[in-house]
Amino acid sequence: MDYKPVKTFSELAIKSLDDFVYGVAPNPVKAKNGMVIGGGSVYPEINMTLPPMKIDQSTISEVYRQYSEMIEGILKRAKDLYAPGIIVEVELLPETTMKPEWGFEINKILLDKMREYQEKYGLKSLLRCTPNDVREMIRPPFMRRGDMEKGEVTVLPREKKWLDIISSQIERIPDDEEKFWHEIQKELDLTKWRPEEYDLEVSTTK
Hints:
This protein is α/β, with parallel strands linked by helices. Helices cover 32% and strands 13% of the residues. InterPro entries: MeOH-cob_MeTrfase_bsu.
C-alpha cells in the first residue's frame, strides 16, 4: 500500500493576531451536509456523556435510551433557538470503547436523529466522537505497556483494512517514553509555548 508523506508545518497559518477572527480559517473545511467550519460562522458545540451508571450487557439498552433522550433534547432546543448549526461531541466511556459494536450503535443513534432534524427542520449538525484512552487505567497512561496492553481489542471486519496503517504508525513510536519525548522535541517549537500563562511551573532541570 502506498502511503502519503506526513505533512509538516514550519509556520503558523495565521501569522498576525490582528488577522485572528473566530469562525474564520485560511482553509475552511466543508462537511458533506454543507456546514463549513472556518467559513465565517461560529457553531455552538454540545458535549455529552452518560450519568454515573453500570455499563454491561444487562444495561446497554438503557445506555442507548439515555443517548437517544439526550440527543432529542439537544436538537429540539437548538431548533427552538434557531441555531445555524451545531457540533455534537460524544465522549465514549471505557466500556463503550472496548466494545466497538456498542460505540457504533451509540453513534448511529445520534446520527439518525441528527439527520432527521436536518430533513424535517433544516437544522444541520456534525458529530465528533472521542473514544476513551483504554491503554491504561492509571494516569498519566503508559504508551505501550501495562495491563491493558496485554489484553485484546475487538476489531470489526470493516475496520481491518486500517490495521496495516495503524501498525506501521505504532511501530515508529519508540518503546522508551523518554526517548520518544526527546525525538518529538526536534519537531516542536517550544518558544511558542508559554506554560506560565496556564499557571504551570517550568522546570529548569536539564
